[in-house]
Amino acid sequence: MSRRLVREKALQTLYQNELNPAGGDRSVEAAARSLQKETGEEEVSFFLRLTRGVLKEMPVLDPVIQRFLKKEWPLSRLSYIDRSILRLAVYELLFEDGIPEGATLNEAVELAKTFSSEDSARFINGVLGSMVKNMEEVRKLARTDFSG
C-alpha cells in the first residue's frame, strides 16, 4: 500500500473525528486494525503517527493554519474535509522530517481533488505554498505557546 493510500485513510479518520470528536482514539484504533489487514507494519506506523500526531498537535496546527488564511476566513469556516487536509499537511511539514515539502504539498492537493473540489485543491495549494515559502515563520509559530 502506498503512502498516498495511507494518507487517504488518515484523512478519512480525521474527518470522522471532526464529525464525532468523542470517537477520538477509538476511531484511530479501529482504522489502524482495518489497515493492518490490508498492509504492513510500516504503513500502519505511518498512519498512527499521522492521525495521532494531528489530533495531539491540533492546538499548534490550527493557529499556524489560521495565520495563513485570510482574516475573513477563520479556520472554522472551512469545510471539515479541507480543514482536515490542511491539518494533515501542516503536521507533515512540521513533524515528519523525512518527507520533502513538495511531496506533502502535492499529496494534500491530490487529496483535495479526490475528496473535495478543484476549487479546494487550488485553495489548499495556495495556503500550503505560502507556508512552504515561509517555513521559518511557520516553525516559529509552531513553537509559540498557544495555551494562553
Write up this protein.
There is one protein chain. This protein is mostly helical and 148 residues long. It has one domain (3-143): N-utilizing Substance Protein B Homolog, Chain A. 78% of the residues lie in helices and 0% in strands. It has 7 helices and no strands. It has helices at residues 3-19, 24-38, 41-67, 80-95, 101-115, 118-133, 135-143. Helix 1 crosses helix 4. The mean pLDDT is 92.
Explain briefly what this protein structure is.
This protein has 148 residues and is mostly helical. The protein has helices spanning 3-19, 24-38, 41-67, 80-95, 101-115, 118-133, 135-143. The radius of gyration is 15 Å and the shape is globular.
Task: Give the secondary structure arrangement, pairings included.
Elements: H1 3-19, H2 24-38, H3 41-67, H4 80-95, H5 101-115, H6 118-133, H7 135-143
Helix pairs in contact: 1-2, 1-3, 1-4, 2-3, 3-4, 3-7, 4-5, 4-6, 5-6
Protein traits:
mainly alpha, transcription, RNA binding, 148 residues, N-utilizing Substance Protein B Homolog, Chain A, transcription regulation, single chain
